[in-house]
Design goal:
The chain is α/β, with parallel strands linked by helices. Helix content is 31%, strand content 25%. Strand 14 (278-284) and strand 15 form a beta hairpin. Bound molecules: nicotinamide-adenine-dinucleotide (NAD).
């Protein structure tokens, strides 16, 4: 043990008392990494995160710090930025606070890791990328869906040629988010439904669909999107009725490289009668697959049934029967944790980490183009952002 070199990394975690900050980033990623003895880079070396919890509310921070067993917390971001032992700034605040906070951290020379969307406009998101590049700091943006077991299975199928030529991808995302009425607590924060606070399902979800599509099925070339605010009023955290100014549903079609067509429905106003909260359905010439968050089912060409339209009789084919599960051939770790570990390695060892602020800006760009398409009621091209 004495010979082990420990790379201790001070990480400023801002917005850590939020839904994502606490559960996915602090508990399931950083504390899990600490509990496993750090990120092992060789038999002699480990990377050990040393978080400082940052936020506005001292009471909440102290309670969270005690709950998870972290010593350092602060309500003063500037002080934590001035402390040279903190080398990484992480941001999971609500979206429209991200840009000024990340800019400040870049100015302080910190490496940046942050939640998506990185901004609410492409211009600002891209500016963060150029600033980080100029400052020479390392940067990463959360693209967690890429490491979900279901999507890893899809990637394996694609990489091993299972699909033949991919024709189309259908994404179905969403669930019923309670409005706050009838004494039922909503599962999402109220700012999600207020445009002026960075809310809206298009800005939230098209960021995800961008990296999912780009990484798995081909670069997004154009978008046609229709947004809707199906539910006009909801009840906030203080029990007060408020107007929903942001879209709660989006119906979007994408043209990808190599003529692949993707269509994604995203909604907080639907009830689930499918395998999971997100399902991705991929049809190819040689086979099809349907993935949820963890599981994935396939139907190869050779076992594709031959249905004939006849509503007058019960279907002779059990359509769900002809699918087989992709086995769990590996242990799947938490998706956020996997990406954190890769980012920490990138900071210490300079290993490749392609999911930086430019990729983050591409997500914001797709959301922005989606909103433009909705407003103009037409297809909008998605130009490549300069490297
Ligand atoms: N990667 C993903 O799958 C995923 C999922 C959900 C949310 N997110 C992103 O994570 C970020 C946080 O989302 P969340 O759902 O955890 O939100 P949340 O409302 O639960 O948390 C927001 C955090 O920001 C802090 N905050 C700072 N100033 C605030 C202010 N003036 N008003 C309200 N809160 C303030 C809160 O204290 C809290 O710590 C958002 O940018 C969101 O888009 C990502």
């Amino acid at each position: 043990m004495e010979n082990i070199k420990i790379h201790k990394l001070g990480i400023i975690m801002n917005g850590v008392t939020g839904r994502m900050g606490t559960n996915q980033h602090l508990i399931r990623s950083i504390m899990a990494i600490i509990a496993q003895g750090g990120v092992k880079i060789s038999d002699q070396e480990v990377i050990m995160p040393d978080p400082v919890l940052v936020g506005r509310n001292a009471v909440k921070l102290e309670k969270l710090a005690q709950q998870v067993g972290v010593e350092r917390w602060s309500t003063n971001v500037d002080e934590t930025l001035a402390d040279p032992q903190n080398t990484i700034y992480f941001d999971a605040q609500l979206t429209n606070l991200r840009v000024p906070a990340v800019k400040k951290a870049i100015e302080a020379g910190k490496h940046i890791y942050c939640e998506k969307p990185t901004a609410t406009t492409t211009e600002e998101a891209y500016e963060l990328y150029t600033l980080a590049k100029q400052a020479g700091v390392k940067h990463g943006v959360v693209q967690d869906k890429l490491w979900l077991p279901g999507l890893l299975k899809l990637k394996l199928l694609k990489d091993t040629g299972f699909f033949g030529r991919i024709l189309s991808v259908r994404g179905e995302f969403g669930y019923w988010v309670f409005t706050g009425e009838d004494q039922i607590t909503p599962q999402r924060p109220s700012w999600n439904y207020r445009k002026e606070e960075g809310g809206g399902i298009i800005i939230d979800m098209l960021c995800h669909w961008r990296y999912v599509l780009d990484n798995l099925f081909g670069e997004v070339k154009a978008v046609s999107c229709l947004g809707a605010t199906h539910i006009p009023q909801r009840v906030d955290e203080n029990g007060k009725l408020y107007e929903c100014t942001a879209d709660d549903s989006a119906y979007a079609t994408f043209e990808l490289a190599d003529k692949v067509i993707a269509h994604f429905n995203s909604s907080w106003c639907v009830r689930v009668r499918r395998d999971d909260l997100l399902t991705l359905w991929v049809d190819g010439t040689k086979g099809s697959a349907v993935a949820g968050l963890r599981n994935c089912y396939i139907q190869p060409y050779g076992s594709t049934p031959r249905p004939v339209w006849n509503p007058d009789i019960e279907s002779p084919i059990d359509y769900k029967d002809g699918w087989m599960p992709v086995p769990n051939n590996q242990v799947y770790d938490n998706a956020f944790k996997i990406q954190w570990e890769m980012f920490l390695r990138h900071v210490v060892q300079d290993t490749p980490f392609p999911w930086g602020l430019r990729e983050g800006a591409k997500g914001v760009q797709l959301a922005e183009k989606g909103i433009e398409s909705w407003q103009k009621r037409r297809w909008v091209d998605v130009p490549e952002l300069p490297v």
